[in-house]
Each structure stands twice: as structure tokens, then as C-alpha cells.
Amino acid sequence: MRGTKRVRQLLWRWRSNPLRRHDDIVGAWIVLAVWMVIATGGSLIGVLTAHPADESFAQLRRERHPVQAVLVESAAPTVNDGAGTPYDQIRATVRWTAKDGSTRTGRALLDPGQQAGSKVVV
Predict the structure, then answer these.
(1) For the whole prediction, is pTM greater than 0.70?
(2) Which H/E stretch holds residue 33?
(3) Residue 44 or residue 91, greater confidence
(4) How many CB atoms lie within 10 A of CB 75?
(5) Helix (H), strand (E) at residue 46
(6) Comparing C-alpha atoms, which of 15, 35, 39 is closest to residue 25?
């Protein structure tokens, strides 16, 4: 008898109520359906996009490798303005030879104070 009373208390919302309108029931089912679509749709989209993202990241890892480059311009140390930047490196222009033999030029993060013509690994 005691367990029956507890079950009634837990399920009090589902009992018949003369003040409960049909619109309230329909609204509750719509909210439940929308949340189910959001939960299953979000999970499905996550699963479907995980594999292409992994392939893209793997391709980026295969394409990137360290090369030796020559510093085109001096990496002059910058004046610290007290902003508290977490980076100790600066951008400088470097030149390197690609696998196909062509010469490439680009900017890379380097330690400050290096002179033009020095060799760096980027």
C-alpha cells in the first residue's frame, strides 16, 4: 500500500485532470518531439562530420613537414610594451626550397635577434 502511494506521487502529472486542456497535451508532445530531434540530429550530424574532418586533418599532417629555410630579413627584437603577450616569437620572412625544387618565400614565427642569412627550421 505504501509503494502505491509513492508511485501515485511520482506520476501525478499523468493522471487525469479536469483542468488539463488538449492544447497543453499537444504542446508538451511538441516540445518533447523537438528535443528528441535536436538530440538525435545533433548526434547524427556529429557522427557524419567526424570522418571527413579526420581525413582532412590527416591530409594536413601528411603535407606539413619541417624544412630548412634561410632568413631573408633580420628578426629584430621588438620592444615589449608591457601588454603581457604570451608569445616570445616574431614573424619574419624566410625562403626555402620545396620538394619539387621551386623556391618559396613566406613568413614564419622565429626567435627574435636572428640575422638575415641565418638558417632556421620552419
Answers:
(1) no
(2) helix 22-63
(3) 44
(4) 23
(5) helix 22-63
(6) 15
